Amino acid sequence: MIETTTSIRVRYCETDQMGTFYNARALDWFEVGRTELLRSTGVPYAEAEMRGIMLPLVQAHLNFTGRAKYDDKLLITTTVQIEGKASLRFDCRICHEYSGRPVADGYTVHAITDTAGKPTRPPKWLMELLGK
Amino acid sequence: MIETTTSIRVRYCETDQMGTFYNARALDWFEVGRTELLRSTGVPYAEAEMRGIMLPLVQAHLNFTGRAKYDDKLLITTTVQIEGKASLRFDCRICHEYSGRPVADGYTVHAITDTAGKPTRPPKWLMELLGK
Amino acid sequence: MIETTTSIRVRYCETDQMGTFYNARALDWFEVGRTELLRSTGVPYAEAEMRGIMLPLVQAHLNFTGRAKYDDKLLITTTVQIEGKASLRFDCRICHEYSGRPVADGYTVHAITDTAGKPTRPPKWLMELLGK
Amino acid sequence: MIETTTSIRVRYCETDQMGTFYNARALDWFEVGRTELLRSTGVPYAEAEMRGIMLPLVQAHLNFTGRAKYDDKLLITTTVQIEGKASLRFDCRICHEYSGRPVADGYTVHAITDTAGKPTRPPKWLMELLGK
Q: Which of chain D's residues have a Cβ under 8 Å away from the Cβ of B15?
């Protein structure tokens, strides 16, 4: 299974008046995780789109397990698997880089579509990238 | 059960290069729904915070069921219920105002805490607001 | 001169850990002002794009003149004028609805381009909308 | 004069339906530049806040000079200077890492305040950091 870990810092614009990150920012960070995972396969998502494959989100689940403040360094660990005939599922776990304390985890499910948004079976190159 | 419906327009800043809204924006819109639901009870969330009650998100689930473009008018329908001893669950459904076509639905679960973030049982005024 | 005023509420996701709105949100609100101004002319921006006219930002200036908290009701007042041969300038002023206290003001300058991004003279319908 | 350069990638959530980054995101990126500049002085902004100094934005100016797509690698170059008695001015220039093509530039002016928001002269440690 492909697993990648990438590091970010919490931006001031990602905090809210509770003093931790605003909840929706976790979905932005999940995206950073997916981007780096796909890059590690050799086909960045931007190139997948150029090859005619899009991965629109159809479902997301998030658990908020801890706080993170401005400028905290976080690790995003992401894995991916094919789900059903025309979906990908990315699992994501975010924790503090130094302490390992958890921040958020969850998953996103993506349709595999052509550029017109029509669901399509994963092309051969995508199956091979994902080790199938 | 309390149910409120509120209306928004998709902002340009909420779109992405797929030409629909960026997924995390749905969580922002769920927040608009919660804000208007709480206002309708007579105790806006800003006042709840002043009374010492915070509602940090602990879980969120989203289904993306349709597209929405810049300037589309959307309806956000929200309900709330007490879950367990110290949690609230808001269910949210977003659709196009004119056609009724679905855009997204899901729920968020919130801890009920004091301003220090310690879980607390819902105070009497909150129970009464929620009709318990 | 065309001038429109529209009203918004500060969203929780627009606050930051200083307890006021995050600075970049003011640019989102300027956009809301432009959208409503253009709607008032009878040609919403979404329709202008369908007619082949885009208005990418080329310059923005912002003065931050006061605080605004979550759920505060703000008024956005916007005016527009043609600048040079192929530009529009929108001036924007944001204040608290009840007290009138200022929050932010500034302007944005937009190129008038075709959908390929090439600068173009304002078409006749746009000139007429703007009262020229 | 202190000058730092830091590198980011454009996130999907930062694009809009024009296919380039949404204009307000440039202010987020200016913030990344300021954060890294202050870190390079030995006193990260998070620590400055702990020492009782805040730097709320009072003015921002942006020129949008080029496009940037999802996943493009950008360089943010930032400098800082003291302006008047109780202000800092950060100048910022964003360009594509590989081609050097410009994306945006501008500046932000920040009041120097205590944690209550009251303007204050820059403390000695801040003057020394900035080489005065």
A: 16-17
* Cα separation, D112 vs D86, whole angstroms: 5
Binding-face residues of B in 28-47 toward C, CB within 8 A: 28, 31-32, 35, 44-46
Considering only CB atoms, C35 lies closest to which of B35, B46, B71, namely B71
pTM (2 d.p.): 0.97
Could you tell me where the DSSP H helices lie in C22-122?
25-41, 45-50
Q: What is the dihedral of CA C10, C12, C17, C20, to 10 degrees?
A: 10
Burial letters for B93-122: b for 16+ Cβ neighbours within 10 Å, e otherwise?
A: bbbbeeeeeebbbbbbbbbbbeeeeeebeb
Candidate from A13, A19, A24 with C-beta closest to C22? A13
Nearest-by-CA chain C residue for A23: C13
Run of H or E residues at A62: strand A57-64
Alpha-carbon distance values, C30 to A92, C33, C95, C108, D61 (Å) = 35, 5, 12, 8, 14
Q: What is the pLDDT of residue A13?
A: 97
Q: What is the DSSP secondary structure assignment for residue B113, as one 8-state letter?
A: B
Strand partners, C97: none
Can you tell me the ipTM of this complex?
A: 0.95
Tokens 């975010």 label which residue? A94
Whether C1 shows a pLDDT value over 90: the answer reads no
Neighbors of chain D by Cβ distance (3+ pairs < 8 Å): A, B, C
> According to the model, what pLDDT value does residue D117 have?
87
pLDDT in tens, D25-44: 999 999 999 999 999 999 99
Residue A114 CA neighbour count, 13 Å, CB half: 4
